[in-house]
Every structure is written in C-alpha cells, then in structure tokens.
Amino acid sequence: MQHPLPSDAGRHRGSLFQSHITAKTAHTSSQVSDHEQKQKDSPRSLTMSGHVGFESLPDQLVNRSIQQGFCFNILCVGETGIGKSTLIDTLFNTNFEGHESSHFYPHVRLKAQTYELQESNVRLKLTIVNTVGFGDQINKEESYQPIVDYIDAQFEAYLQEELKIKRSLFNYHDSRVHVCLYFISPTGHSLKTLDLLTMKSLDSKVNIIPVIAKADAISKTELQKFKIKLMSELVSNGVQIYHFPTDDETIAKINASMNGHLPFAVVGSMDEVKVGNKMVKARQYPWGIVQVENENHCDFVKLREMLICTNMEDLRDQTHTRHYELYRRHKLEEMGFMDVGPENQPLSLQETYEAKRHEFYGERQRKEEEMKQLFVQRVKEKEAILKEAERELQAKFEHLKRVHQEEKLRLEEKRRLLEEEIMAFSKKKATSEIYQNQTFMTPGSNLRKDKDRKNSNFM
Amino acid sequence: MDPLRQSPSPSSSRASSPRTFSCERLGYVGIEAVLDQLKIKAMKMGFEFNIMVVGQSGLGKSTMVNTLFKSKIWKSTMPGLRVPMPQTLQLHSVTHVIEENGVKLKLTVTDTPGFGDQINNDKCWDPILGYINEQYERYLQEEILITRQRHIPDTRVHCCVYFVPPTGHCLRPLDLEFLQRLCRAVNVVPVIARADSLTIEEREAFRHRIQDDLKTHSIEVYPQKSFDEDINDKILNSKIRERIPFAVVGADREHMVNGRCVLGRKTKWGIIEVENMAHCEFPLLRDLLIRSHLQDLKDITHNVHYENYRIIRLKESHALPRGPGWVNLAPTPSPTPTGTRASPGPGKVCRWAEDDSDEDF
Description:
The structure holds two protein chains of two kinds. By secondary structure, chain A is α/β, with parallel strands linked by helices.
C-alpha cells in the first residue's frame, strides 16, 4: 500500500480530510457491519468463490500503454565539452547528433530534440534538451535563468492544455522535463558556485540526478573523497536531489544501495575497442582501456539501470504529482484563485473565473469608452484646424478679388482716355482735309489764304 | 552556423521533428523494463471499477452481478418474499474490494430498483442521469481544486448494463428513450435478460431486431464504432458488435453436471449452465466487461464522456440534469465579447467559454 510521503501531508487540507480517509480505506480490507454498508464510503472485502478473471487488469493497462507509447524528457545541464551528448548517446546506444557545439555563444540557449526509439514492442518518445553555452560566458550571472524559464514554459504549456475547455490530454505530447542530469566537472575538489546556484534554483522544479562527468580523469581514491565532499555540500546547502524510491519492496533494496553511490561517476563513449575477444564500448589510452560497461571502471551501468530500467516511471510520476502540482498551485494562486472564499466557504474555480470575467469585461468597457472619447476629441481638433484653413483661404480669395477689381477699373480709365484722344485726332484730321479741298478752288487770293491755311493746317 | 551572428533566444524550445531509431541491433538499453515498472505501480495502487445495472425488477440484475463477480454482492431477491416495490426510482450503491492474484479491485455496483415499474414511467431516466452527472461533477470539483489529491477517487460510472426484457419482439419505447439518452453520457452495454425463455432461433431473431432498432435510432452502444483506433481494434470490436446484445442467464447456485460442479439454473427439463457458450452468452459478457475491455471502458469514460461533460459544464451550466449534490454557481454574465482580443495581463485569465476557436489564456 502506498503511504503518502511526508511532504504530501502538507498538501492535504482540512476540507479534503474526509475524502482522504476514503482513499485510504479503499485500499485496506476493513470489515464493517451491514448497517454501515448503507454508506457509500465503506467498502467491504469479499471472497470470491471462483475465478473471475480481473487479474489480467495490469496486462490490459500495459497493453494500452504500449499502444499509446511512452514519453520521456531528459534535460542535460553542464558546461560545454563535458560529455553530455556522448553520455546520452551511450545511454541509449544510438548516435543522436553529429556536431560539437561552439564555446562562443553569448547567452545560454536550450536546444530540444525529439527522437522515437523502439525496443521490441515498446515505443519511446525521447526528448533530449541540451544547454548550449552553459558556463562559457565571462559573466555567468544569467546562466541558469534560461533553464528555469524553459522548465517553467513546459509546465505552463501543460497547464494551459489542462485548463482549456476543449482539451485532449490523452494525446498531448508531454514535454515536461522528467529528469535533469547535472554534469559536475571532475575537479576532485568541490562543487563550483555556478553548479550550486543552478541546482538550488532547479531542485524544486525537476528531479535532479547529479553525475560526475569524465570520471576517467579521477583516480579511485580521489573519487571516493570527491563523492563524499559533493554530497555533503549538497546537503549542507539544502539542495534536494532525486533519491530513488525505497517504498516498494521489490526495488527498495537495490534503490537504497544505489542511493549510497550518488553522484554516479560516468564515462561515455560510443567507440568500440577490442578487449579480450569481445568488442566493448571503451576509451583507449596509452596506459590502458577504460571500459564503459565495467562496473569497476565507472558507474555507467548503475546510471543506466537506475534511470531507465528501474525508475523511469517513478521519475515521470514525481514530475507530474509533485513538481507540476507545485507549479500549478503557485500559478493559480498567483492568478488570484483560492480554494476557500472570504467566509471560508469552499469557492469553486469557476466562481472565481466568473467574478474575474465580470471584472475583465468592466475593465474592457471602460477602456472602450476611453478610446471613444479620445477619438471624438481628436476628430474635433482636426475639424477645427480644417475650418481655420478654410477661413484663411476664403480671406485670400476676397483679397485677390478686390485687387483684381481695382486693376480692372484702372484699365477702363486708361482705355477711355485713349479713345477720347483717338476721337480728337480723327476730328482734326477730318477738318484739315476739308480745308485742303477749299484752297484748290480760289487760286489768287488764296495764296495768302493758302499760306494761312497751310499754316493753320499745321497747327 | 556562425554563433556570433545568431540572435540569442534564452529558451528556444522548438523540438526538431522526431527521428526514429531502433535500438535492437545496437545492444541492450532497457526501455522494456518500463512495462514492469508500470505493472508494479498499478498493482500497488489497485484498480477501481464502477458498474451500474439498470432494468425492470425481476429481470435478474442482482443475480447477474453476483454471477459476474462470483460472490454475494447483494442478496438476490427471491420471488415470493414480500419485498415492497419502491414507489420511485432509487439508486443503491455497494462498494467491495476484491482481490485476485495480488490484483486489488475496488468494485462499486449501483442498482436501480424501481426503474420502469411505475404506471407512468415518464422521465424515469432523470435520476439515473443525475446520478451519473453527479459523479462526473464530483470528479471535476476535485480536479479543479488548487491543492489536488495525489489520486482523485474515481466514482464515475464506467459501464451501465441495461437489461432488456425477453419479449422476443423488439425494443420497447421505454428502452429506446432510455438508451438514446444514456448512450451519450456513459458506456452502455445492453443485454437480453432471462434468455432461458427464448429458443436459439428466437434469440437470434430478437438480437437482429434489436440491432436494427439501435441502428435506426442511431444509438451507439459500447463498443462504440467511432472510437475504434486502429485496425486491430476494429476487427475485435466488430466481432463483439455482431453479438451485442448478449443473451445472458444469471445463476448463483451450483449443481452437479456430468461430475462437474457448475453454476446453473435447475429446471425440470434440464440444467442451464451459465458458463456454457452453447446455453447462453454469459462468458462473452464477462470477458467483455472484465477480462478484456475493463481498462478500455475506463479510458473511454475518462477521455470521452467525462470530457464531454466537462465542456458542457464549463460552458452552459444550466443545460444539464442535476444530481442532488449540485452547487449552483454564479450565472454567466450577459455581455457577449466582441471579436477583438484585449491585451494580456490580469484580464488574460478569463477568456473561458464563448469563443470556440483557440481557447487559451
């Protein structure tokens, strides 16, 4: 029977105590009298007189899971070049990615890649998330924030899907990080400050399994001391790493002994070297061959067994029931929801939603009004400007018209004068012609008259 | 790829398209062991199953349940005993924990005495629908709490077995009305009760007529055709669909036949063996409900019926028949939203309901 972990007791609140009791009694066979049987909450245990057949239930469950496929997401945190990709390749026996990353990224980025693996009839959708550029920058203050943001983003995506009205959780590709492999560099001394800070900020969000990378750089004795030092540092700083569960009898013993070997010192290699008469995965040095799968050389086999063979399901379970629930609770409380209303009446999420929606609509109405007002005001201003311009135009027009009129009058005046002159001139011309005709008729006395006339003509 | 020229994005979480690898030829990894882990976890937690039996009195419901689970879930009512007929439809639930080979099953059986027994049976399905919805409601309330339990207790009805009286003709109006309503809310498995009063030919004819009736009225009983996922499911389920409704006989007494001890009904003209396929189809029902499709029943209830309920409940609370434990929530506000989306912020949380496309916050 699974007893709730001590940390879960805090999650069960007073109003849920009744149903908590129900869940407990459901799993124990308690004998109650017929009278109490009337209540729905007290199950009786029955003995059956024959074979019913529901022992196939776990198989039905397994069949359905096989059909659906499994999903597992690993986050690898460690400095560039510490051996993250190689270790993942070795763990899953596949060459996942080709190229090495550069050391010159200005910020830490996370790169996620999904692969579909299949072993006999089990399909696994594996997502490997790598931190690119971790520990490379000169100023490492912002190094761990992208990782925390990524993990939160995955939780957020799941939460959004869960809160939707039309949701489809059963075929949702779960991208929440199930385990974080933290790679510690094999200095042999202690944890680096960056490591400590990063692990501290991640331990409440994800299951952390610390591993000592490139363990072939440390000797056996140094390794022991290093491990002890690391664990004591982690404990004294309050970093909660993932401990393998020891509540189930079948795996309790092995898990407990593995817990004592944390952090695992691992070596990764995809190269095969001939040892004896077999080809094994190993790293070849002039002074010897480090075999990856040899328990005396490194803890790789232990890591593989713990991570994949024994506890994959528990890692997923812990992520969902502990880390995700914690995130969800914080997020919902942040959004302003509570389980209990002002007078300690249990408040349903929907009531709060309705209240918030009222509020939101009110807010939006107000904003709409504001914008309308603004719009009207702007229109008025524009109108005023246009009117002003119109008036100016009008004034100009008037002025021009006046000028034009004056000009016209002046020209008329000039024309009149000119016409008068022309008339005077033509009269004079006419009289002089008449006088000329008269002088041709009287010759004698006309000479003097002619002269006079000529003279007078010229006047 | 020049790293200096790339724009830094702190959490670029776009995953590339999945590539398929097969691990078998490269050596042992151990992914298979996750199946064992699943099994261990499931056995530790135990299973839950809730079944409801609906039918008129005297059709052998209690006996059938006792036969299915081979134990005295209820004391079956014998004819002749003065059992007062309930005046209205009541719902009566019993919970038991049974164990077989290390597998613990918490079984809840809900009986409906008084169904269809009154003179006027109008709306006799309402209390049943109300009960079913109340279980969904309970689960929903637990699910939307902020501090949730680790394992939400599942009281939702996973399967409803409907007993059709063996008239030999066709489905009656009461049956049709009930089935139509209930198939939308829960998995319904109709069975022909007391099938020992029909001969084999009559049985087959009755079965075909019932199947035709169901098709005419577009009633989808379990296993529903629209939820078949792949070709294997289709083949398996169409075989079952051919035999629905099963003609069953229930018995909880044992008799000696040919030296074997079998469950059966003893009559003057012979012994009807319950587990003999030639006599009745009880083994088919038992296999469907328990041995092969129990997990599937639970899955469809959780993924389809419960989700449908949740959608309706969160959108139009007033349109559902209510159980006794109903909490009347605040009415939905009247202003309908215009097409524009407002800016994010504290107002972002409330965009529930009204728009059907992209419902997120």
